Amino acid sequence: MMKNKVALVTGGTGGIGTEICKALSSASCHVAASWLAGVDDGESWLAKCRKEGFDFAIAEGDVSDFDAAAAMVKEVETKLGPIDILVNCAGITKDSFMHKMEKDQWDAVLRVNLDSVFNVTRSVIMGMRKRGFGRIINISSVNGQKGQVGQTNYSAAKAGMHGFTMALAQESARKGITVNTVSPGYIATTMVAAMGEKTIQKMIAQIPVGRLGEPEEIARVVSFLAADESSFITGANIAINGGMYMG
Questions:
Q1: Per-residue pLDDT tens over the stretch 108-119
Q2: Does residue 201 sit within a domain?
Q3: pLDDT, tens digit, for every residue of 54-71?
Q4: Which residues constitute the domain of residue 110?
Q5: Which of 12, 37, 145, 201 is such that its CA lies 20 to 30 A from the CA of 242?
Q6: Residue 203 burial class via C-beta count within 10 angstroms: exposed 0-12, middle 13-18, buried 19 and up
Q7: Cβ-based burial of 75 (10 A; exposed 0-12, middle 13-18, buried ≥19)
Q8: Per-residue pLDDT tens digits for 8-63
Q9: In the annotation, is 186 catalytic?
Q10: Which one of 35, 106, 133, 154 is the catalytic residue?
């Protein structure tokens, strides 16, 4: 059960984030999504979701900045109440071969994909500890498990997320807080669709089940991990990649 729990999904206006918001809302959570001005349009996203019957809250903020992340969390808690469930889903890519990668490409990806996990979690963890309940779910990637050519920055950040998960899971277990990682493979989002049919077919050729994953499939696992009944699962890394990487 998750009735009346408050959930925050960072990067909640993205393809996977949107479906996570919908899944948690359908499980009777009060859901907020973070968004970033200049990157997406939170108000337009909110209006579209409301037409579909979902009443979310939104909070604008740069999760790669510690103070901005803290302010964003405070805004969510003012609107909805203390955060019970945190899904760290915000992420970017800036791909390049290592010998050509610029420092700003490395820094940007590490800040948004990894620093943000600390920034937002740090703002909610004390409240979770005091209340004796919390669910923290970090959205990593298959490329954080197996690596990927041209993604030393992204692979390092996503692998770091699960290291964070395992350490915090041990710190928090006796406080009623579970911390888990979900590692999607190639998912049918707008970002992937923009790569073109030829590239998509090459991606599918690497996937044993023979198709891209759907954002809803990621959201289903997140919703399962967020439930009260999943209290014995912590420190895990759930791979959802169609058999692309097994380990």
A1: 999 999 999 999
A2: yes
A3: 999 999 999 999 999 999
A4: 6-237
A5: 12
A6: middle
A7: middle
A8: 999 999 999 999 999 999 999 999 999 999 889 999 999 999 999 999 999 999 99
A9: no
A10: 154
